[in-house]
From TrEMBL:
Residues 16-34, 55-67 have a biased composition (Low complexity). Residues 1-67 are annotated as: Disordered. Residues 72-288 form the Calcineurin-like phosphoesterase domain. Pfam families: Metallophos. InterPro entries: Calcineurin-like_PHP (IPR004843), Metallo-depent_PP-like (IPR029052), Ser/Thr-sp_prot-phosphatase (IPR006186). This is Serine/threonine protein phosphatase.
Length: 355
């Protein structure tokens, strides 16, 4: 199978344009998407619905509506605390209105994880997703979310704080690892029990309309079962045991990346699809420029150097995988896309002028 960085040092490793491993960015540069120009002041978010909607909690899911009554399917890549960018992207996709309320009727929306860290308002993102889940369900659609490695890291930092963990870089603590990977003290200060319960009950895998949805582009999901239900239950149960070493191991495994990128990638993708179902994997976690190896800048038709940013999801691994992380932490766009893709993504990264 394709080689994956171990990710066991306590740092979420990324890759530069040449493919070398480098630590993840602790903070982002200015984000240019959504549209340029002074943004209108966003209205304050109302309190999240409490308790979370039934479809977000552990246990048997509510009965699915008939397939012919379901609305279109959308997915959102990594958010990382960029609440304003998420609001704008959801409005642009027609999923929410100008007051950030659900406006898409029976549409279905999946978030692929990593709601917090690096950006300014991770708890605000969680509040928005929780509220949209209740509003979408009331309208006959749904808004659901998957567990990302940064949720695992935040849960660990909250629950275990300065408890030592064994990392490849030497013994560290959950809190130190969280801070090193972009943890925001303001998020920790505002984190409440209902946020913690919501994160700890998120599923890790889902199959929708022939798409296998997951956060990390890793084969580590195979370590927890051979069905979607088994994997979701195994990870859920592990988080309920409140064991620091077990939570650290989950974080370490799901920080791995690039399983579908290289020569053995298509076979790794086929293995996951054959095991869990679906015809195509849809994931977040690895920013598209790191998957394509295109670097951070390009020369445009005027000979000017411009930031290289994806404008659409990246289809790769012999069309078996779709990457959804537009790299919002690096100034890229917040990708919200309807599945199946309207057109095959053949060149996901193109030069884009700065504002």
């Amino acid at each position: 199978m394709a080689q994956e960085p171990a990710g066991d040092s306590g740092v979420e490793f990324r890759a530069d344009a040449a493919g070398a491993a480098v630590p993840g960015h602790a903070a982002a540069t200015q984000v240019t998407a959504p549209p340029a120009g002074p943004p209108a002041a966003a209205p304050p978010l109302p309190p999240p619905a409490a308790p979370p909607a039934p479809e977000e909690t552990a246990g048997a899911p509510a009965a699915a509506p008939p397939a012919d009554s379901r609305g279109p399917l959308y997915v959102v890549g990594d958010v990382h605390g960029y609440l304003d960018e998420l609001r704008a992207a959801l409005r642009a996709a027609g999923l929410t209105d100008e007051e950030d309320r659900w406006a898409a009727g029976t549409s279905r929306l999946w978030f692929l994880g990593d709601f917090t860290d690096r950006g300014p308002d991770g708890v605000g993102v969680i509040d928005l997703v929780m509220r949209l889940s209740a509003e979408a369900a009331a309208a006959g659609g749904y808004c659901k979310a998957l567990l990302g490695n940064h949720e695992l890291l935040l849960l660990g930092a909250h629950r275990f704080a300065d408890t030592p963990v064994e990392s490849g870089a030497g013994t560290a603590t959950f809190r130190a690892a969280w801070m090193l990977n972009g943890g925001q003290p303001s998020d920790m200060e505002r984190l409440e029990d209902h946020h913690v319960q919501w994160m700890s009950r998120l599923d890790s895998l889902a199959v929708e309309d022939g798409h296998l949805l997951l956060h990390s582009d890793t084969t580590a999901y195979l370590d927890y079962g051979d069905t979607v239900e088994d994997v979701n239950d195994a990870i859920f149960q592990a988080l309920q045991r409140l064991d620091s070493a077990e939570t650290w191991e989950l974080f370490r495994k799901f920080t791995r990346r690039f399983a579908f990128r290289d020569e053995d990638g298509p076979q790794a993708a086929r293995t996951l699809l054959a095991t869990f179902g679906g015809a195509r994997i849809v994931h977040g976690h690895s920013p598209i420029p790191y998957l394509t190896g295109d670097g951070d800048t390009a020369i445009d038709e005027d000979g000017e150097e411009r930031p290289l940013r994806p404008t659409e999801p990246h289809l790769y691994a012999e069309d078996l995988a779709i990457a959804m992380d537009g790299g919002v932490t690096m100034g890229g766009p917040m990708l919200v896309s309807r599945l199946p893709l309207a057109a095959e993504a053949t060149d996901a990264a193109v030069p884009a002028a700065t504002a």
